Amino acid sequence: MGEQRGIVTRFAPRDPTNVAEGADYLTLRDYKPANASKARIALVGTYAPRQCGIATFSTDLREKVREFEPDTEVDVYALEDSSHDLDYRDIATTIAWDDPESYRLAAAAIDASGVDAVWLQHEYGIFGGLDGEMVLDFVDRLATPLIVTLHTVLVDPSVRQKAIIEHLARRASKVMVMSRHARDLLAEKYGVAHDRIALIEHGAPERPFARQEEFKERLGLSGKTVLMTFGLLGPGKGLEHVIEALPAIVGEHPEVVYRIVGKTHPNLIARDGEAYREKLQQLANDLGMSRHIEWDDRFLETEELLDQLEGCDIYLTPYPNMQQSTSGTLSYAVALGKPVVSTPYIHARELLAEDVGALVEPNDPAAIADAVNELLDDPDRLGAMGRRAYRRGQRTVWPRFAAAAAALVREVVPSREPTRAALRRPNPAAVFALSDGTGVLQHSLGPVPDRRHGYCLDDNARALMLTMRMERSDQTDAAALTYASFIQHSWNEERGIFRNFMRFDRSWCEDAGSDDANGRAIWALGDCYARAQDPALRQWARRLYDTALPHMEAIDSPRALAFMVMGALGVLEQDPEHGASRDLIRRSCDMFCRLVEESRRPDRTWFEMMLAYDNPRLSEALIAAGMALDRFRWVEIGLDTLEWLAEHQYAAEGHFRPVGSDSLGRSDLPPLPFDQQPLEALAAIEASSAAWRASGDDLWFDRARRAYDWFFGANDRGVALADPATGRCRDGLTPQGANENCGAESILAFHLSYHSMLALSRHAADETGDTALAETVKGFAPGLAHT
Question: Dihedral, CA atoms, 80, 82, 86, 90, nearest 10 degrees?
């Protein structure tokens, strides 16, 4: 590396394993190339050896994807109940289901692990909090694309239950369900778009057909007609209705044995012991059916369960709850070609349609007896139903399920090919399309300006700053005067403060704007004074700056002060002895330094106890002011804080990940990743540029470049937000991808980012003697080395 430039020598790298050979500075890892044939997911849910249906599903999901889709790797994050002492094998870690801190740590570990996607299994009862609400903070912390499998979609949810599903759907890239009914219900009742719902039926085993006599012999049941139900016992299974139907069945088919396989649900055991099982056994005894029932009080491993299923003639699911959308054992039975008698709950209605099984009314023992006897009385119909079931089940066998699962993962995994965005000048038409004779409009619907929300000082200040950097033309000069006029009109002389929001009819929404809006106005005026080529415009900016600045002394908002510092630095470029600007800079930067010392913690080198918006501007103001006024301590603190912030703004894979707007008002770390705003990328570029000029450390050039690449797909969703050809920029990155609206803040941030990267590239090419950096500049901005 060439000789360090600037006034500050950077620190030793914090992670020696992340440093290029022979280098003496910290380097970010290259972006992870996307590979359509390889993917790694984090599977979150209950998991074996825990004994519940979702644990079985999660375990099957991992094992079958491993078996049939070996290019998809699965790390397991198992929800753990401390009341169960379980020996988990071959998993990443456990998550204490009722501990918020455990969820937070797991989310951080998942994002740091570099997995391509998270696949979360959702059922209200497996997560902590009321209705399992702890899952919400967990998913909010995930930057990685999220797939959510909903094992229950309620027709009549409570307000809280509905809000939880809606929140999960907003955070998920895809929502998977296992029934058409659940898919349609999600769209109609919960408002989830159809294109974000994936329907993958519950997977099932692939075994030969019609081997029941072989497996009856293994079970000691030769010569018997075997009915079977499997699952964790509880009042919601409806088993008492089958027992009540047995006298009528046995009366016609005395060789019938009803096998009830499965242990009592652990939660029921903890509360009531074996009272429910004993109640069923007493019912059987009272009806004289005890010798026709076999009890297997165990939770069977999958292979033994399948063996027992193969040994039955009819499988029964007499569930009274008609909203049950998934039954794994029903899927297994159908795939093995077993005739089924079932109540018409959601999954049964779909899977057993077209005479794949027989449906009976719930809570009706007589209906169960009639259906079973009709099948046993007609062996041809019984055999034909089994063959239809087997054919139907082949659509859900594990190889097909695993292929669909792997395809779903590939669909949500972003393509993050190494991105080195060329510096193409954005088409200024996008800025002018949002502008009229009043100023630049705030918002848009897609690319169409939305007049309902009018104008704001913040955007017009940014727009004036942009015109100071654009190639000069009649159109640019006219636009600059329009934006300047808006700023002038926003000055409320009576109150000595700038207004911010204006309606489309040009009436003001307020008499006084926010501190931040006033700070941006001062910044734009100082910038205009420093850069305007029209002397008259420069004089206007200086007059209004001098008029407004004395009224800003009461402002103590750190960001507003940082904006004003940047404006004051612009004034000092033209008038180095401007006393009021120097006083503002000294007062503000001394305050910044005090804030850092007051807020400093072993794990925090920052100005506040939280991260909000435009965070890099605080560090940038210190660095730029320190360079201008030869205050090296300011520079050092600015670089320290910006280095600390960078640790929270770049992903493990190396791409830029700004602090999301969801983090506003929250003090916890790491910050929430969404929604990501273009303004944050601009701030990171300009602060990194200031750090590069001060320290000469090429790491800052690299960080600025990565923040610029964020606009073009080097981000958490692999989608381009900006288009130089049109000049548009979409309004941010959400968990589902890009916000399609193209408002003023986003478009201006993109255009200003281009000009900042252009200036940095030119400066680097002019100033550096480092041949490696020169090559980097040429590769990033071809043809700019001597522009």
Answer: 40
